[in-house]
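Lab notebook, bench 4. We co-purified these components, and the gel suggests they stay together. Before we commit to crystallization screens, I want a quick structural picture of the whole thing.
Request: model the full complex, all chains together.
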Amino acid sequence: MENRDFWLADAPVDLAPLRRRVQHDRAGAFASFEGWVRNHNEGRPVHGLRYESYVALAEAEGAKVVAEARAKFDLCGALCVHRVGDLAIGDMAVWVGVTAAHRGAAFEACRWIIDEIKDRVPIWKHERYADGDAGWLHPDTGRGVDA
Amino acid sequence: MSAVHLLYFASLRDAAGQGGETWTTDAVDLRALYMEVQARHGFALPVERLRVAVDGAFARWTDPVCAGSEIAFIPPVSGG
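Here is the predicted assembly.
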Protein backbone atom coordinates (compact mmCIF):
# COMPACT_ATOMS: atom_id res chain seq x y z
CA MET A 1 0.00 0.00 0.00
CA GLU A 2 1.10 3.52 -0.79
CA ASN A 3 2.44 5.48 2.15
CA ARG A 4 2.87 8.83 0.37
CA ASP A 5 0.34 11.66 0.78
CA PHE A 6 0.17 12.33 -2.96
CA TRP A 7 0.90 10.10 -5.89
CA LEU A 8 0.07 9.48 -9.52
CA ALA A 9 -1.67 6.23 -10.39
CA ASP A 10 -1.57 4.70 -13.87
CA ALA A 11 -4.48 2.32 -13.16
CA PRO A 12 -7.89 2.59 -11.44
CA VAL A 13 -7.62 3.19 -7.71
CA ASP A 14 -9.30 1.14 -4.97
CA LEU A 15 -10.98 3.58 -2.59
CA ALA A 16 -11.23 1.41 0.55
CA PRO A 17 -7.49 1.56 1.32
CA LEU A 18 -7.51 5.33 0.76
CA ARG A 19 -10.28 5.79 3.31
CA ARG A 20 -8.42 3.58 5.77
CA ARG A 21 -5.31 5.71 5.33
CA VAL A 22 -7.09 8.84 6.62
CA GLN A 23 -9.03 7.12 9.42
CA HIS A 24 -8.10 8.33 12.88
CA ASP A 25 -9.64 7.97 16.35
CA ARG A 26 -9.56 11.76 16.72
CA ALA A 27 -11.52 12.27 13.49
CA GLY A 28 -15.19 13.16 13.65
CA ALA A 29 -15.43 14.24 10.02
CA PHE A 30 -14.36 12.85 6.69
CA ALA A 31 -14.68 14.92 3.51
CA SER A 32 -13.71 13.62 0.10
CA PHE A 33 -13.72 14.93 -3.43
CA GLU A 34 -13.71 12.87 -6.59
CA GLY A 35 -13.06 14.45 -9.96
CA TRP A 36 -14.68 12.44 -12.77
CA VAL A 37 -14.26 12.46 -16.52
CA ARG A 38 -17.34 14.15 -17.98
CA ASN A 39 -18.72 13.79 -21.48
CA HIS A 40 -18.41 17.45 -22.48
CA ASN A 41 -16.16 20.45 -22.07
CA GLU A 42 -17.03 24.01 -23.01
CA GLY A 43 -19.94 22.81 -25.12
CA ARG A 44 -18.06 20.10 -27.01
CA PRO A 45 -18.88 16.40 -26.63
CA VAL A 46 -15.87 14.55 -25.20
CA HIS A 47 -15.23 10.84 -25.85
CA GLY A 48 -12.33 10.35 -23.47
CA LEU A 49 -9.12 11.82 -22.27
CA ARG A 50 -5.55 11.20 -21.31
CA TYR A 51 -3.57 12.74 -18.48
CA GLU A 52 0.13 13.30 -18.85
CA SER A 53 2.43 14.49 -16.10
CA TYR A 54 5.94 15.55 -15.30
CA VAL A 55 5.97 12.78 -12.71
CA ALA A 56 8.89 13.76 -10.48
CA LEU A 57 7.81 17.38 -10.13
CA ALA A 58 4.09 16.57 -9.91
CA GLU A 59 4.61 14.13 -7.06
CA ALA A 60 6.85 16.58 -5.21
CA GLU A 61 4.46 19.50 -5.72
CA GLY A 62 1.39 17.41 -4.86
CA ALA A 63 3.06 16.30 -1.62
CA LYS A 64 3.77 19.96 -0.85
CA VAL A 65 0.11 20.82 -1.36
CA VAL A 66 -1.00 18.16 1.13
CA ALA A 67 1.72 19.18 3.61
CA GLU A 68 0.63 22.82 3.34
CA ALA A 69 -2.98 21.77 3.96
CA ARG A 70 -1.90 19.93 7.11
CA ALA A 71 -0.14 23.08 8.31
CA LYS A 72 -3.01 25.40 7.37
CA PHE A 73 -5.96 23.38 8.73
CA ASP A 74 -6.43 21.31 11.87
CA LEU A 75 -6.49 17.86 10.24
CA CYS A 76 -6.17 14.26 11.28
CA GLY A 77 -5.39 12.88 7.84
CA ALA A 78 -5.13 14.07 4.24
CA LEU A 79 -4.15 12.49 0.98
CA CYS A 80 -4.67 12.81 -2.73
CA VAL A 81 -4.19 10.51 -5.69
CA HIS A 82 -4.38 11.57 -9.33
CA ARG A 83 -4.73 9.30 -12.35
CA VAL A 84 -2.51 9.48 -15.41
CA GLY A 85 -2.93 7.69 -18.72
CA ASP A 86 -6.10 7.00 -20.71
CA LEU A 87 -9.45 7.52 -18.97
CA ALA A 88 -13.02 6.94 -20.14
CA ILE A 89 -16.18 8.93 -19.41
CA GLY A 90 -17.15 8.42 -15.77
CA ASP A 91 -13.70 7.33 -14.62
CA MET A 92 -12.35 8.88 -11.46
CA ALA A 93 -9.49 11.23 -12.32
CA VAL A 94 -8.61 12.49 -8.85
CA TRP A 95 -9.47 11.66 -5.25
CA VAL A 96 -8.93 13.88 -2.24
CA GLY A 97 -9.71 12.64 1.26
CA VAL A 98 -9.44 14.66 4.45
CA THR A 99 -10.30 13.88 8.06
CA ALA A 100 -10.57 16.30 10.96
CA ALA A 101 -12.14 16.50 14.39
CA HIS A 102 -14.94 18.65 12.95
CA ARG A 103 -16.54 19.07 9.54
CA GLY A 104 -15.50 22.69 8.96
CA ALA A 105 -11.80 21.97 8.63
CA ALA A 106 -12.48 18.79 6.65
CA PHE A 107 -14.64 20.56 4.04
CA GLU A 108 -12.34 23.57 3.78
CA ALA A 109 -9.14 21.57 3.47
CA CYS A 110 -10.64 19.22 0.90
CA ARG A 111 -11.66 22.18 -1.27
CA TRP A 112 -8.32 23.90 -0.76
CA ILE A 113 -6.34 20.82 -1.76
CA ILE A 114 -8.20 20.20 -5.01
CA ASP A 115 -7.98 23.89 -5.95
CA GLU A 116 -4.21 23.91 -5.37
CA ILE A 117 -3.72 20.63 -7.23
CA LYS A 118 -5.54 22.06 -10.24
CA ASP A 119 -3.56 25.28 -10.07
CA ARG A 120 0.04 24.14 -9.62
CA VAL A 121 0.69 20.42 -10.10
CA PRO A 122 2.16 19.67 -13.54
CA ILE A 123 -0.53 17.41 -14.98
CA TRP A 124 -2.11 18.00 -18.38
CA LYS A 125 -5.40 16.84 -19.84
CA HIS A 126 -5.65 15.79 -23.47
CA GLU A 127 -9.27 15.52 -24.61
CA ARG A 128 -10.63 13.55 -27.54
CA TYR A 129 -13.75 15.10 -29.00
CA ALA A 130 -16.73 13.46 -30.72
CA ASP A 131 -15.87 15.21 -34.00
CA GLY A 132 -12.47 13.49 -34.14
CA ASP A 133 -10.53 16.52 -33.00
CA ALA A 134 -8.30 16.35 -29.93
CA GLY A 135 -6.22 18.77 -27.96
CA TRP A 136 -4.38 19.73 -24.80
CA LEU A 137 -6.07 21.95 -22.26
CA HIS A 138 -3.94 24.89 -21.21
CA PRO A 139 -6.33 27.08 -19.23
CA ASP A 140 -5.37 30.71 -18.87
CA THR A 141 -6.55 30.85 -15.26
CA GLY A 142 -3.57 29.10 -13.69
CA ARG A 143 -0.35 30.60 -12.54
CA GLY A 144 2.50 31.30 -14.94
CA VAL A 145 5.81 33.10 -14.69
CA ASP A 146 8.20 32.82 -11.77
CA ALA A 147 7.81 30.26 -9.04
CA MET B 1 28.23 27.54 -24.64
CA SER B 2 26.37 25.23 -22.27
CA ALA B 3 24.71 21.93 -23.10
CA VAL B 4 21.46 21.31 -21.27
CA HIS B 5 18.70 18.75 -21.50
CA LEU B 6 15.24 20.13 -22.25
CA LEU B 7 11.92 18.47 -21.41
CA TYR B 8 8.69 19.24 -23.26
CA PHE B 9 5.18 18.37 -22.12
CA ALA B 10 1.66 18.41 -23.55
CA SER B 11 1.26 20.88 -26.45
CA LEU B 12 4.94 21.80 -26.33
CA ARG B 13 5.88 18.16 -26.86
CA ASP B 14 3.48 17.88 -29.78
CA ALA B 15 4.88 21.06 -31.35
CA ALA B 16 8.49 19.96 -30.86
CA GLY B 17 7.73 16.43 -32.07
CA GLN B 18 9.71 15.01 -29.16
CA GLY B 19 9.61 14.80 -25.37
CA GLY B 20 13.01 16.34 -24.94
CA GLU B 21 16.34 17.09 -26.49
CA THR B 22 19.86 18.17 -25.74
CA TRP B 23 20.34 21.86 -26.50
CA THR B 24 23.50 23.92 -26.72
CA THR B 25 23.05 27.54 -25.80
CA ASP B 26 24.69 30.72 -24.65
CA ALA B 27 21.40 32.17 -23.37
CA VAL B 28 22.00 34.33 -20.30
CA ASP B 29 18.96 33.07 -18.44
CA LEU B 30 16.06 30.63 -18.66
CA ARG B 31 13.81 33.23 -20.28
CA ALA B 32 16.27 33.77 -23.12
CA LEU B 33 16.63 30.02 -23.45
CA TYR B 34 12.87 29.60 -23.87
CA MET B 35 12.86 32.34 -26.52
CA GLU B 36 15.48 30.39 -28.50
CA VAL B 37 13.59 27.14 -28.26
CA GLN B 38 10.26 28.82 -28.96
CA ALA B 39 11.66 30.27 -32.19
CA ARG B 40 13.13 26.91 -33.19
CA HIS B 41 9.93 24.91 -32.66
CA GLY B 42 7.27 27.57 -33.20
CA PHE B 43 5.75 27.22 -29.72
CA ALA B 44 2.53 29.22 -29.53
CA LEU B 45 2.62 29.74 -25.76
CA PRO B 46 4.36 32.95 -24.65
CA VAL B 47 6.83 32.74 -21.79
CA GLU B 48 4.42 34.66 -19.55
CA ARG B 49 2.03 31.70 -19.53
CA LEU B 50 4.66 29.12 -18.62
CA ARG B 51 6.58 28.10 -15.55
CA VAL B 52 10.04 26.61 -15.65
CA ALA B 53 11.72 23.89 -13.61
CA VAL B 54 15.37 22.96 -13.26
CA ASP B 55 16.46 19.51 -12.11
CA GLY B 56 12.97 18.70 -10.86
CA ALA B 57 12.23 21.90 -8.91
CA PHE B 58 10.44 25.08 -9.94
CA ALA B 59 12.88 27.85 -10.89
CA ARG B 60 12.79 31.50 -11.94
CA TRP B 61 13.00 32.74 -15.51
CA THR B 62 15.84 35.03 -14.44
CA ASP B 63 17.94 32.09 -13.19
CA PRO B 64 21.10 31.43 -15.21
CA VAL B 65 21.42 28.42 -17.49
CA CYS B 66 23.70 25.86 -15.85
CA ALA B 67 25.53 23.36 -18.05
CA GLY B 68 24.30 19.83 -17.61
CA SER B 69 20.98 20.77 -16.02
CA GLU B 70 17.61 19.32 -16.94
CA ILE B 71 15.20 22.12 -17.79
CA ALA B 72 11.45 21.61 -18.14
CA PHE B 73 9.11 24.17 -19.66
CA ILE B 74 5.75 23.84 -17.89
CA PRO B 75 2.70 24.89 -19.92
CA PRO B 76 -0.50 25.86 -18.06
CA VAL B 77 -1.61 22.80 -16.11
CA SER B 78 -5.01 21.10 -16.38
CA GLY B 79 -5.12 18.31 -13.83
CA GLY B 80 -8.04 17.62 -11.54
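The radius of gyration of chain B is 12 Å. Worth comparing against the SEC data before the next meeting. Residues 16 and 41 of chain B are 5 Å apart (CA to CA).
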